[in-house]
Amino acid sequence: MEDLNLKKPPKIQVLNTEVPEISQPVCKIRKLTDIAEDPLEVMDDDEIPYMTSRKSRLHNKTQLIGKHYNPLISPRDSLTLPPIDKTLLFYQKFLLGLLKHPEIYRQFKEQAIKQDILAKINTPINTCRMSFNLKEPNRLKNIEVHSVNAYKKLHESDKKNNVLDMILKTPQAKQDNDKSQISLKSIKHSRRGSASRASSNSRRSSTRRIKIYKCQLDKTSKELYEIFLKISKTQENSHRDQRVTSEALKEWLLKRYPQEMVEVMAKAIVIEGNQNFDSWSSIIEKFINSNDTKILKFCFELFDFNKDKYICTHDAYYAISLDCSNLYDQDIVRIRESMVSKQSKKGHNQKMPKTHIRRHSTASSGDEEAKRVPYIHPTKPEALTVEDFLKISFIGKPQIFQDIISYLTGYNINSSLLKPESSCHTRRLSQDIVYDIRCQEELKDSYKSDPRYQYYLDLDEMMHKFDLAESEMVLEKFEMLKCPSFRKEKMISLKSTIEVWPTIFGFKCDYVSKLFYGILAGKNRTDITKMSFLKKINEIFKGSSVDQNKFAFDLYDRNMDGILTCDEINDMYESLPQNTPIYDECQILVNEFLSSIFGKRHKPLDNIDFALFSELIPKSLFIDEFIGALMTPKTELPRKCISFLEKIPENPNKIINI
């Protein structure tokens, strides 16, 4: 050894667990070996310490599986390990094949650890990669493997305890902490609903909402154009020949996907005749922007290899057997999870929950056929129907769909569909800008070039007429009342007033809401801007008692002609709830007209002007209710409008003590 100037190889120490001999083939499993630095050191199986020397940490751990093994292996013989038992060759080939699908392999490993099939070895920090020991191989004894062709036997087998159950019976895959990918599940479609859902607590929040946009391919993208040329098999300089046909698309897809999937893709991406680059881009855009239900049904057909309207264990196993470069591992894991969930429910004879769906006379034959498919397969209770597949929670779109789009366009569908809302919806509130200009004088110069600078100054002047708390309350109500249909300008419309004002006011009365909008909008009935809203509210808040009562008079004056007619009083009278304080107030005006009709007045009454109104009603109840509604915080809404509540009847048996 010294003459050959060779270093002695390290000693391999092995822990051998004794397994009793049984008539049927039983796997003899040995724990992972630890490579010691001293080749002459020999210890018993139960007394091998973990070597923590610096050199030993650099050695790779090796798992030895063999039927005949001598723990006292000489240094020269340790270079050649004993042969693997024939009964274990299948496991070796199976796990090596499973390594081609890292996502499924990782889930298989985690589930095997939970079921104590694999044992985890605790290793110190900064050592080699984590290793595992096989334990209790009898759990796999139901798998019949006796030849190299066991792969086909397992594929054709209908047994429940097969390898695929062991592989795919896993929890949902944990996603890597990739900041570039955003989970679509946690993202709701940001639709502009009614103004009552506006948030006042996040007025100064800088968080940008996420909205799902329709994908628009960049036709100037060089990568997209290069893929188009590859599909059409044309050169870049031959512009006349740049055409894509359905056959060319199939040939391009067959380079990456199996034949069964390509047939489904060709039906979904319809190409009629020869299509140029612009037409091709439009077809792909339409395919990407399909609704979620259509996309999931398309993916269901991709995994339904035997075309029996179910995705069963055989379909999932066949998908794993295909060499497709891990294009749908995440989908397979989620499909298997759904299978386990369906099979674990109460009994296999459960029926699909009945849903009352209106029957359409124009239903297609495909829909009728889908309805005839039993929810539970007679021989495969774990098989998924289209309805089951639609309930699976994928991470955004299914992985196979994302890969198809990336292969055809070069785009990441997540990054292309998820964009922050446009600036017109996320711009700062004008009152926030006014606050900044007011507090920081140096910002005035930066905003002078803004075309809205004069508007900010006018708004600041109007806000100075309120206290700070009052201005915040009033502007909060404006944000609630603004109409979502206006995008460039924030304004209040009649529709938004009728929808939102009852929540603020505390009582739903469309007639009163229309009158309130009429006062704010003026005679021209223009939409209410923030400036006009503040100006009118300031007259109510800061005006004298006469000005405030004039506001109540204008509320009755529907025609805005300065007089109250009999029809105006009658319409208000009929819209108010009976036996309420506000009803009694309106009753005073009604009685004046009745007195005139029956000749109880010395002079006939044709209408009521503001002077007579102030004489009859010195202070209207509408004043306190409107001011109270505008000064109530949003967190305390909806409020109770006391003047519109029914009065408590007095007890006739009440004894009055004199």
From TrEMBL:
Region (Disordered), start-end ranges: 170-207, 343-370
Segments of skewed composition (Basic residues): 343-361
GO molecular function: calcium ion binding
Keyword flag Thylakoid: no
Biased composition (Low complexity): 195-204
Record domain EF-hand: where: 544-579
Gene3D superfamilies given in the database record: EF-hand
InterPro entries: EF-hand-dom_pair, EF_Hand_1_Ca_BS, EF_hand_dom
Protein name in UniProt: EF-hand domain-containing protein
Organism: Blepharisma stoltei
